[in-house]
Amino acid sequence: MHATLKTLAASAIFCFAGAAAFAADQDFTLYNVTGYTIDKVFVSPVGKTTWGSDILGTDQLEDGNKVDITFKASNDICHYDLKVVYTDDDTAVWNDLNLCEISKVHLHYDRKAGVSRVTYE
Q1: Angle in degrees, CA 58, 80, 15, rounded to 5
Q2: Which domains does the chain have, with CATH numbers?
Q3: Chain segment 26-65, per-residue pLDDT in tens
Q4: Within its chain, how far is the Cα of 51 from the centroid?
Q5: pTM of the model
């Protein structure tokens, strides 16, 4: 299987689940429409207690911009949690996103209500 790295070459997540595992495509484009700059992004399989490495590395995702998040897992896990850390160290977490079916993730922030939300395609 060929793994194509798009914008973030360091965004690979490796999971080992045995010889009978299937590979799934969890790539997605992350859109920041929060009104704030995102400093860090973490993606972790549902149920994991750790987040792993920041997949943005030293980069930041400014409001109004997007970034391609590309990784291949060596198993058939599709459901992931997503966490972002803004430049002011506030965080937001969205749980149980099916990244095998989602290709675009739009992050929003409602300033009036003080609520972060996610929409996806």
Answers
A1: 80
A2: 24-120 (2.60.40.2890)
A3: 899 999 999 999 999 999 999 999 998 999 999 999 999 9
A4: 11
A5: 0.77
